[in-house]
Specification:
36% of the residues lie in helices and 23% in strands. The strands form 3 sheets. Strands 1, 2, 3, 4, 5, 6, 14, 15 and 16 form a 9-stranded mixed β-sheet that branches. The two termini are 14 Å apart.
């Protein structure tokens, strides 16, 4: 089975043209947007050209099927609001090339998947979350994005072409290839990383309601300023989380909306999201309890109300030993002395897939450790090396 590495790179660059940002190699391709759907249709066409049977499920996951009991390879093609060209896209195109090479050579059946909304416009790993049963389709349909769009409305664009959800047992396992999204291998000089496990994540949306009032006439002591309450909340979270965190624990207040967002008005409402990650489920729960305690303190001291949304998340996931062994052997053969084992601090569809079938992940370096940004990039020789390692492992499995 011969890979066509030029074809692989050409497909990667063609996929980048869907939603190209005009800044570096970045893309703007949010889940269910017109450009996201156009990219998925193009990928589906490439799957068909490769002799694979295209299957779109109700949530928008798109499969290129090679038959029963096939190995499944893939990732996602949607992006962050200001995303990189490789995040997710690499895993889909790598899976496509390996499945295509297998078809051309009459080799073993290898299928490819492009999951929908991995980047969390609506939920957390929405497409694989629904397919693996972590969230029902009915529950997912009630999710909204930060602009108030409901998922059921967004996915209605594809409803005419969707079929049933596929059974898990038609696949022997799942492998996801991805950029590292961190500085580890870029610093060490390694070309390949075999993922040992994926951290767990918790996330919720929070609303602080104070009292909107005149900025010039409302005394400081009488203000119920929602934004100042948010500032207190953030400061205390940073302090309290740090007291119990390990070296791998991270947390982020990454989205906030201020209302009415006017310079002469005391802010009445703030909406924001808080996320925390770690590999220990007990610590994830402890951090949630700290968050609830801080919210109660802020509400009492600032004279505001703090509304906590539903805490969503994914449990930490260990990768399958058999699949990891195949990736390690291929890495040693293809990149001797230039590969390493490492955990994933980023969340991936593989975390959901590990609950329903044997799952593994392969990383290639991120230049400067940059991801979720327009200047995300990886050397082409590292992209090809990752493809070669994944290819050997897939054949051995």
């Amino acid at each position: 089975m011969s890979l066509n590495c030029d074809r692989f790179l050409d497909d990667l660059h063609r996929l980048r043209s869907f939603g190209a940002s005009g800044q570096g190699k970045g893309v703007v391709r949010p889940a269910y947007s017109a450009v996201d759907i156009a990219a998925r249709r193009w990928l589906a066409g490439r799957m068909e050209e490769a002799g694979l049977t295209v299957h779109l499920d109700p949530i928008g996951n798109c499969f290129g099927l090679a038959g029963e009991k096939s190995l499944l390879i893939g990732s996602h093609s949607d992006s962050q609001p200001e995303g990189g060209w490789l995040d997710g896209a690499l895993g889909v195109v790598a899976g496509l090339e390996i499945a295509r090479a297998a078809k051309e050579a009459g080799g073993p059946p290898i299928s490819v998947v492009n999951f929908q909304d991995e980047e969390g416009r609506f939920g957390i790993l929405t497409g694989s979350d629904v397919w693996t049963g972590n969230v029902s389709l009915a529950e997912a349909d009630q999710l909204t994005d930060t602009g108030g769009v409901v998922l059921s409305t967004a996915r209605a664009r594809m409803s005419g072409r969707a079929k049933d959800f596929l059974p898990y047992d038609m696949f022997t396992g799942f492998i996801e290839m991805h950029i590292e999204q961190g500085p580890g291998m870029d610093v060490s000089g390694d070309q390949v990383g075999v993922v040992s496990d994926i951290v767990g994540i918790r996330e919720l949306r929070i609303v602080i309601n104070g009292r909107q009032n005149h900025a010039g006439t409302t005394p400081m002591a009488l203000r119920q300023d929602a934004f100042q309450a948010l500032c207190d909340f953030n400061q205390r979270i940073n302090q309290r989380f740090a007291e119990v965190a390990t070296s791998t624990t991270v947390w982020t207040l990454g989205h906030a909306e201020l209302s009415p967002n006017a310079s002469s008005v005391v802010p009445g409402t703030v909406r924001f999201a808080l996320q925390w990650r770690d590999g220990d489920p007990a610590l994830l729960l402890a951090l949630e309890e700290i968050m609830r305690a801080v919210a109660a303190e802020i509400a009492q001291e600032r004279g505001v109300t703090v509304e906590l949304g539903t805490v969503g998340g994914i449990e930490p996931a260990a990768m399958d030993p058999h699949l990891k062994a195949a990736l390690r052997q291929a890495a040693e053969d293809q990149a001797p002395g230039k590969w390493r084992d490492l955990p994933s601090g980023a969340l991936h569809d593989a975390a959901n897939m590990a609950r329903v079938m044997p799952t593994a992940m392969l990383f290639v370096p991120s230049i400067g450790g940059i991801s979720h940004a327009f200047d995300e990039d990886t050397k082409e020789e590292d992209l090809v090396k990752g493809l070669e390692v994944l290819h050997q492992a897939a054949l051995s499995l």
